[in-house]
Amino acid sequence: MTSHAVSDTHACADAPGTARAPASAPVIAVPDLEISEALIRRFDQSGPRYTSYPTADRFERDYPAATYIQHLERRSAQPSPAPLSVYVHLPFCESLCYFCGCNKIITQDHSRSAQYLDIVFHEMALVSQHLGNQRQTVQLHLGGGTPTFLSAAELTLLMEHIRRYFEFTPDAELGVEIDPRTVSPASLAMLAGLGFNRTSFGVQDFDPDVQAAVNRIQPYDMVRTALQASRDNGFQSINADLIYGLPKQTLASFSRTLDQLIELSPDRIALYNYAHLPDRFKSQRLIRAEDLPSAETRLQIFLMSVQRLLAAGYVYIGLDHFAKPDDELNRARLDRSLHRNFQGYTTRAECDLIGFGISAIGKVGDAYIQNQHSLNAYTAALERNELPTAKGYTLSREDAIRREVIMTIMCSMPLDFAQFEARHGQSFASLFADELQRLRPYADAGLLALDAQGLRVLPKGRVFVRAFSMVFDQFIRKPRVATYSKLI
After folding, report:
1. I need a surface site. Which of 77, 82, 143, 231 has the fewest CB within 10 A?
2. Residue 334's closest CA among 459, 426, 430?
3. Handedness of CA 291, 297, 299, 305 (dihedral sign)
C-alpha cells in the first residue's frame, strides 16, 4: 500500500519495533487521555494489529479454492446476506520507497497495468459466478502499490467492471490510496467523477533529509495542492499517513512535519511506527541503520505526536488512528458502530469482504481467503480458470467467539457480559476465567474498567488495545510464523 510502512493488511506485513523507554517520564495530559512513558515501558509489547482473527500469519497454506467457493455459495443462499466490501490490490509503483514492506511491483512500464487489469477482471467474473444476486456493496477500497499508477482510462475501465459485478448503496464509501507524486487536480477530479469520495495520502514525513533517505521526494507544496484538490472536488474524508522512526528523523524535524500537517488539516491521521527488518524486506537494506533514530528518540516522537494531535483537536480513535470530532470515524466510535477489518478502522458494521488481485485477502462468513502472492502464480491459476487462492482459514465456533471479543476490544467498545451470554449461551466469566485474571494488571493501572457486569477500555487504555486483545488470542502462545510490531 502506498501509505503503510508495516501493517497486517492485505499486502503488507506487520513487524516488530525495537524501542525501549528512556529513564525520564513525561506525561501526555489532555482532556481525554493521560499516558505516561512509564505505562508504555510497562505494558507495550510486540503483537498483531488484529485486522483479522486469527491473524494472517495463522492462515493455512494450500487452502482449497473449492472451500472458498463453498463459502461464497453459502452466503448467496442466505435470504439476507451481509453487505459486501470490495478491495482491489493494484501493486505497481514507478519508484521504490526504501521503507516499504508491501507487496509491490516496481516498474515504469505502464503497459503492465493494462495486462494486470485483464487478469483481475477474469477473477471478478469467476467470483461473481458464485455470489448470487445479492451484491449490495457498502465499501470499495483501492490499495497497492500505487493505484494512481493506472491511467484515467484504466481507472475508468476498472470502475466499469466493478459496477458490473457489484451494486453500490447510495451511501457507499469508495476510497483510494494516493501517492501525492502521481496525482494532479485534474486526476483527483477524475476520481471524484468515478464516484470515489475518500482519499488516503501517504505523507510519511515532510523533512527533505528524511525524504531523501527513504527515496520518496514529495515537497510540502505538492501535498498541500493534492489535499486542497481533494476538498475542492468534494471528497468527504481525507486521511494522511505519517511514519515515525524513519532515518534522519529527529524530535525537532518531526515536530515541524506535524506543524505542516496540522495546518493542512486532514480529517484523519494515521501515525505508524516504522519497523526496520532488512532481512525480511530487501528494500530496507538501502536504509543506513546508523541513520535510524534511537529507541529513546522514537518514543519521544510518539509521545510528542500524540500530545500535538490531541491538542490540535483530533480525537484518539485507537492504536495509531486519529480523527476530527465530526469525522464519521469518530462518530462511529461514539455510537459504537466502529469496526475493524483489513483496511483498519472502518465505520461500517460487519461486511463480507471480497479481495481481488495479488495477495488480496477476503472474508466471507467465518472464512478468510488470501490470493497468491506472486503475479506469476496468480496469473497461472486464472489462466486455468481457477480462483487464485493460496491461503485461508475457516473459523471454529471458539475462534468466532474470540474474534468477536478481540474486535470489540480493538474498537474500544464495551463488552457486556449479560449480552454475551444471551448471544452465545455461555457465561463470559466461566469461558474466559483465565483471561479475566490476566487482564487484572491493566485494570489496576487504570487502563480498563473490569467488573462483574463487563469490560470497558478506558481512554488511556486505547493505546494498549493490542495488548488486551492478545490475552484472548489462543494462537499467540504457539510458535509464530510472523513477527509483530510494538507501539514504539
Report:
1. 77
2. 459
3. negative
